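Standup notes
- DV: blocked on the single-chain target, sequence here:
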Amino acid sequence: MRLKIKEGVPYELDANDNPTFDHWMQRVDDVVWRAVGCSIHDLPDCDYRIWYDERLRPVRAAARAVRRA
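- DV (later): unblocked, structure below
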């Protein structure tokens, strides 16, 4: 299954968007729930911390996690 992302959505967070890691993870989990009906905790482990440090948008991280599952 793939998560479809609207064209033009940037890969990185905006400069003024600085969530904590926990808040960012919650955003990723929310996107996964809405898209595929399960939690990120139900998916195989991914490099979430690396993606957070790279300032990847939660929707992009969710798409990667779902694609790897």
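- Follow-up: The chain has a mean pLDDT of 94.
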